[in-house]
Amino acid sequence: MTRVFAAVLALLAATAPLTACTHHRTFGEKVRDTVDPPQGPVEKAGRAVDRATGN
C-alpha cells in the first residue's frame, strides 16, 4: 500500500505544474471541443496536457 501511495504522490507532484498554466483556448480549440467533445476524463486530461505542453 505504501508503494501505491508513493507512486500516486509522485504522479501528483509531477503534474502539479500543469495546473498552474493559464491557457486561454484558441478559436480552433473551442471549435474542436464543440464538434468533437472529449469522451471521458482521460481524454479531457490528455487534451489539457497537450495544450499545456504546446502539442
Automatic annotation (TrEMBL):
It comes from the Bacteria. Residues 30-55 are annotated as: Disordered. Residues 44-55 have a biased composition (Basic and acidic residues). This is Entericidin. Keywords: Signal. Residues 1-20 form the signal peptide. It comes from Gluconacetobacter tumulisoli.
